[in-house]
Amino acid sequence: MTGTRHRTALTDELGSGLLAELASLFEEAGGAPIGEMLERIGPGVHVMAEAGGRIVSHAMIVDRAAYVGHEADQAIDVGYVELVATRAALTGSGVDASVLSEVGRIIRDEYALGALSTAEPSPYEALGWQAWAGLTLARTADGELVRTSEADGLVMVLRTLRTPPHLDADGPIAIDWRPGALW
User: Fold this and answer.
1) What is the rounded distance in angstroms from the CA atom of residue 132 to the CA atom of residue 115?
2) What pTM was estimated for this model as a whole?
3) Hey, how many other C-beta atoms are within 10 angstroms of the C-beta on 14?
4) I need a surface site. Which of 8, 47, 111, 141 has the fewest CB within 10 A?
5) Contact call for residues 121 and 140 (beta carbons, < 8 A)
6) Which residues, in sequence order, are bridge partners of residue 172?
7) Would you tell me how many other CB atoms lie within 10 Å of the CB of residue 124?
8) What is the pLDDT along the chain (183 residues), one digit of tens a residue?
């Protein structure tokens, strides 16, 4: 989209004006209130597209740990994608893909693996994300693995140069437990 610029910010760099703009975006997109979401998922890197003085698309990367394979005892540093939203009038215009491309670039530069959960995989597949075919689980603080069958078929990963070579997308994957939606 012509006239669009990208910007990134850490959560603690978001001022009240930017938070209000994000709240407007998420309200338009039918999402949960941004304040509640940020409280639940914690801090991260926000990737935003601006056009005409407004935030028109957003995605966030948060640090998480994932465990792959049947042993599930070695953590992989994951850039987990959250809070993806684009203004309705601009969905499919390319602005959403440009934000997701920037998210992918950051993940490839900073993490061993990218991960997300979505019911709409095609925008991510076009950018190199792969559906996780194996079982999904959550790992509690004491190391117990809990099945998250509701996430089966919804998790996608983005491999990077630091992705372990043994990563098998047909095997199980576990993510650290957190309040609310685990994936």
Assistant:
1) 9
2) 0.91
3) 18
4) 141
5) no
6) none
7) 23
8) 567 899 999 999 999 999 999 998 988 877 777 888 888 898 999 999 998 889 999 999 999 999 988 766 678 999 999 999 998 887 778 889 999 999 999 999 999 999 999 999 999 999 999 999 999 999 998 989 999 999 999 999 999 999 998 889 999 999 999 888 899
